[in-house]
Amino acid sequence: MPPTRVAATARLARRLGVGCQLSLETPMACGIGICFSCAVKLRDPSGGWDYRRACVDGPVFDAEQVVFDDPAE
């Protein structure tokens, strides 16, 4: 699914107040987390953000945690 549609799905779930998990499609060059080509930007509990590797920590993430580089976000 295109990233804009994934972001729209996350926004819709938030607006409706339903839980949502997203399975993200990212390039996974090595598949074991060494190259960081699959890094996903996620919110952390302190209010900041950090990167997680989709091939190791995902590829499914809670929609509320994913940070989209989208002005509508």
TrEMBL record:
Family matches, as Pfam families: DHODB_Fe-S_bind (PF10418)
Taxonomic superkingdom: Bacteria
UniProt-listed Gene3D superfamilies: Dihydroorotate dehydrogenase, electron transfer subunit
InterPro entries associated with the record: Dihydroorotate_DH_ele_sf, Dihydroorotate_DH_Fe-S-bd, FNR_nucleotide-bd, PyrK_electron_transfer
Sequence ranges assigned to domain Dihydroorotate dehydrogenase electron transfer subunit iron-sulphur cluster binding in this UniProt record: 25-66
UniProt name for this protein: Dihydroorotate dehydrogenase electron transfer subunit iron-sulphur cluster binding domain-containing protein
Biological source species: Desulfobacca acetoxidans
